[in-house]
Amino acid sequence: MQPPACRHVLPFILLAAVLTTPVLAGQGADFSVVLLPDTQLYSEKFPDTYVAQTEWIRQRVASERIEFVIHLGDVVQTATVEQEWKNADRAHRVLDGMVPYSVLPGNHDGAPGETELFNKYFSPARFHCCPWYGGHMGETNDNNYCCFNAAGMKFLVLSLECHPRDETLAWASEVVQRYADRRVIVATHAYMNPKKRLDSGQRIFDQLVRTNENVFMVVCGHIGAAVQKTATNDAGGQVHEVLCDYQNRPNGGDGWLQLLRFVPDENQIRIEAYSPLFAEHTDAPTPVGTLEYDMSDRELAPASGRRFTRLGKLRLRRGCRAWRLLPSGRRMRCCGR
Questions:
Q1: What topology is assigned to 24-301+312-334 in CATH?
Q2: pLDDT tens for residues 271-289?
Q3: Neighbour count for residue 237 (Cβ, 10 Å)
Q4: Which of 264-299 are b and which e, b meaning 16 or more Cβ less than 10 Å from the residue's Cβ?
Q5: pLDDT confidence of residue 4
Q6: Pairing label, strands 268-275, 280-282
Q7: How confident is the model at residue 28 (pLDDT cuts 50, 70, 90)?
Q8: What are phi and psi of 127, to 5 degrees?
Q9: Residue 321, φ and ψ in degrees, nearest 5
Q10: In terms of CB atoms within 10 Å, which end of the chain has fewer, N or C?
Q11: Rounded to an integer, what distance in angstroms lies between the CA atom of residue 271 and that of residue 191?
């Protein structure tokens, strides 16, 4: 029932194979990842604010070089109220086909385990046509992963349900190890408060983060604050932990979100808070800062035998919103109407 997140309407296309490595605009080009925290009160009471956030992202994909958007969970206030999910769907339709994004269920969305409406509106079917969508655990989208490339580097965003279970963390670890050539951002809803990790956050750190050295960042919401900390994994590497949640501010959060601006030539990630309702970049209402992150070694591991192939000009059937390259690499199929 839901449109693919990668929908496009194109009468003709000239295809170069949609594989693992896109053309790079510049090895040192700055780029951004957006954190979209706890939209629960927007879905419940202020749906236009939610749309204002995604409209701002859509309009600035090029100027801010936004490569990915991560929703941090608690999409809605009450998991069983379908109108709230319709409001959230309306907001995310703005992003569909414009920028890759991931969504994960928070406790208000029914996680863990009671996520029927989350999966009605944000199921794997919504994303399965998208070349950046990697996959999911089991039959639901409660735990999923996506890939993107930027500035000569390969990234993976691993989105986990609120309070992930042991089997979820075992699956997550397998995914991270399978993509050992990618820099991993783990996203989950409840991980830390301003002082320390929550119990579920400590389990995530112990069973997943500390033992996989390609995990360099964990991002979360749930607790009303904006805080950054740095931990050390078992290999001696740094892991940045970022808490971002503005729901305790007026009007459900006043539309605040965060940009993680990667500056490879300076080995920095600069965090900026922004609200489209106030139309200004600012360090308020809570401190944001700069994280040191080594991006000097940007060499990509060879793709697993997959190469770019020019397929020629294809005439696409009318009425199809999205197309997917079949494994043979020579045919397309319609996967969204």
A1: Purple Acid Phosphatase; chain A, domain 2 (3.60.21)
A2: 999 999 886 555 444 447 8
A3: 14
A4: beeebbbbbbbbbbeeeeeeebbebeebebebeeee
A5: 61
A6: antiparallel
A7: low
A8: -115, -5
A9: -90, -20
A10: N
A11: 19
